[in-house]
Every structure is written in C-alpha cells, then in structure tokens.
C-alpha cells in the first residue's frame, strides 16, 4: 500500500516538476503579457481592393497572409468616412465629435499644417497609455491631426504630445499638390473662385483707369489707387496660402524638426519603410508599439518605378501592390528578429475608397466591393466598412473569419488592456476590447448599436439584434448622387453632409445587412413586420447616445481650419521655408 501511494505521488509530482522546468524565464513572460503591437493603417483603401476580401486582380499576398495566419473581420467599421475624424476616433477610442474632431461645416478635415485645430491635448490616446506602461511608441507616416495651437513651436497637437516617443512622416496628408506634375487637388473649386474674383477685380480697375484716361468715367486717381491696393491685398492674402500649398503642407518631419520642405516624393516610400524597420530593430528588446500609417493609397498615388505598370488596375493598383510589399517587408523583419509569436499585428484602412477621384479616364480612387457608397459618405457601408485583420500566432486562431460588427475604435481598449493599462475613467470610451471575440471566448461583439456620422450630423445607425442575428441599419440622411443613379457625387467630388445635396428620410430607410449587405432593397412596414419595432428601438438608442454627448470646442471650425502664417511649421526663417535634410540619408533598397 505504501509503495502504491509513493508511486502515485511520484506520478503526479514528476510532470509538475518537469512542467515548471520548461517554463520560460520571467523576462519572457513579461514580453508575452505585454506583446509588441504593430498597427498598419492604409489611407483611402477600399475593402474591395484586397485579395482576402474578394479582389482577384490586385495582388496583395502579404495582407492575405495576415488573414490566413490570423483573424479576418468582415464588419469592421470606421467611426467616420474621412481621414481626420476617423483617425481621431481610432487614436482615442471615441466618436470624433466627442473630441471636437468632426465638422459643422464643409471643411471636414485638417486643411493646413498652419491651422490651429487638431487633436486636443486633453485627449488620451492609446499611445500615451502604452508609453506609461513602459512601451517604446513610434508613429511612422501620416498624422493629419494638427500641429500647433498658438505659436509655431508649441506643437500642442503633435504626435510627441500624444504619447509617441518617435515620429517620422507627414504631419499633414498626401495630396496631389505635393506632386508638381499633378493637377492641384486641395480646395480646387474654391481656388478657381478666388482666381476668377481676382481677375474680375483687376479687370474692373483696369477698365475704370482707362475710362478715367479717356474721360468717360469721372473717378479720382486716389480712389483708383485705393481700389488697386485693395485688389493687390486681396491677391496676396489668398495667394500666400493657396499659391504655396506644396511648401506649407507637403513637408516631412522627424520628431519636432522639419526635414524636407517641400517633401521629395521620389524617396518618401523608401524612407518610411527604412524608418519602420529601424524602429523595430532599435526596440526589439522591450515592448514596442509601431503605428505605420501609410501614405498609400491616397492621391497622387506616389509609386516607385519598381511597381509602375505591374497591376491591371493602373496606377491605383500599382500603389496598392507596393503598399502590400511594404507590409511584407515589415513582417519579414518581425520574423527575422524572432518577434512573430510575441507581436500582435493589425491591418485596416481609415475609411472606404474614394469613388469620385478621377482624372479624365483614369480612376484614382479605390473600390468598395459590393458595398454602396464610398469616402466622405457617413452612412453607406462603402464609406465606412473597411478591412480589419489581426494576427498573433499562438494566441489568436489562424484562418478565422468573424462576421460581427466591430469598430476601429475597438483598437483602443484592446491594446490598452493587452499592455496592462487602465482605460480613462473620466470620459466615455466607445470602443470595446476585441480579444474575447478574437480568441473565440465569446460569440458576439459587445456592440449592440453603432452610430454613423457625417461631420456632426447623424446619418445612420445600426442595431445588432444578437438573438436573431439580424443587423438592422436605419438611414436618416443620405447624399444625392449625381448623375442620378451613379452611386457617388461625381458633380462635387465629395458627397456633402447637409444642405441641398442630401435627402432626409422620415420614416428612415431600413435595411437588414445580414440579408442585404449591399443596401439595395430598403424595407418598409409593408414588407417587414418588425419595421416599426426596429425603428423605435434604434430611435431610443440614438436618444440615449445623444445624452452622453457634451459640448466641446470645435477643432474644425472655420477659425481653426484657416491658414495662419504664425503657426506654419518652417525649417528656415519664415517665409523662407525650404530645406532638404534627408539628402544624405541613403534610402532603403526598393
């Protein structure tokens, strides 16, 4: 009997001791509990542009590999259909109007590096919390959340004031004005009006002067001189900003230093890739957060010669394929450094593809698959449904597809919790931790309702009826497409949020996205028995949501949006702002 008891205890203890001996050291455990985090965010990429989401002509093998080795989300929703508000929501885990980062006017994004609007200093980004948890935090690429508030060097909206230890990239966004050979893009219609007004004023003054010389008009030379001075002042006022967009907005910065003004677009891609790889290599021995915010695939679609002409979708397809290659280069470095199993990788786009972006017969914007609408459209799925992929070998299952409503705002609580941080308790956080859903610990997303804004205007809302699996979506406002039936606002270049360019619906348009994801067949009380019940349920949720909103300063007000010379980042003595401090840096091999 004693022998049997001894044998029994030995058989129990031996595996326990053996298991303890195989445990990794404490340092390794801490790395696993605080994984490295790499966030890839594309710019203006449509969900239909990626292979694993159904595109079979644009080649995206590296993004597809992430989906194969990880989890793919099919209902990943941006909080806004444009860059600035969507990224503000991503960084803060909050609807952008909570931080004042959605617009009351038609200027719905940060318009100038020399503007005073931007992500408020009192907002807490996930980068700041991870920084407090001991992470090295880096942002490479696009920012578009503002730079200064009151002086040229206060950097109140700068990435380094929002939790990033290191920044290299564009404080603004890539636009066609950055490429001298391209047609200017920024505020194109308004610029035409300014030119026309200047010419008309000049012509009127010249006519009056000729009339004075010939005696046909009785006007004093003093009056004509004052009018000429006014005309010149008017021209200087607007041309000093719009005439030098490339110098004011198309700049590159390293931390607080302007390194290229204007940027040299031929080497931008190589420098962004080199900086991303260098950041990983410098910080591989401690937890790090790398936010690689691509300039791809925003116009002017800067693409290196190696990728030109490779895609069957013209320059846009070439640009997407180059971005995919960049993803692959970063993944290769993660593998080479032995970080694959301790790194959470995420890929997404900030919003849907830009349907109206065309030059002649060239389509320069993305494709949103079966989904209706696109960039700038706050309600339709094509403007807000984006790719969403997570990979973390050994922690997340491979090849899993989740068809549950999720949001870009969910990244905030997800990475904060993984880092061991605590969510802010003094404000509403709209995002939800995705790890239980990604790991299969729960069946449904925590989001019962999601609200879809265009600027500060609520255009639509969705209800996830979890017991039935239905996903109801009610549209209260929709843009008027022109030409009629065209699927976008080709007459404007962007669909508006309010005014004559939209239609208000009462009762709202209702769709069941679980049956009609393309939003092609609106339901009615005659065709859907639950119509009134669903509309009332969503209406009550909207009222509840609105009670959580508090007034905040409007970061995209007209005053904050306009160019202010005293706020303009400058690498010289203003207004003599030009430099190239990257000329001696060898670009990465492409």
TrEMBL record:
Residues 1-19 form the signal peptide. Keywords: Calcium, Hydrolase, Membrane, Metal-binding, Signal, Transmembrane, Transmembrane helix. Pfam families: Sulfatase, Sulfatase_C. The chain crosses the membrane at residues 200-221, 227-245. It comes from the Eukaryota. Belongs to the sulfatase family. PANTHER family: ARYLSULFATASE D, ARYLSULFATASE FAMILY MEMBER. This is Sulfatase N-terminal domain-containing protein. It comes from Amazona collaria. The lineage of its organism: Eukaryota, Metazoa, Chordata, Craniata, Vertebrata.
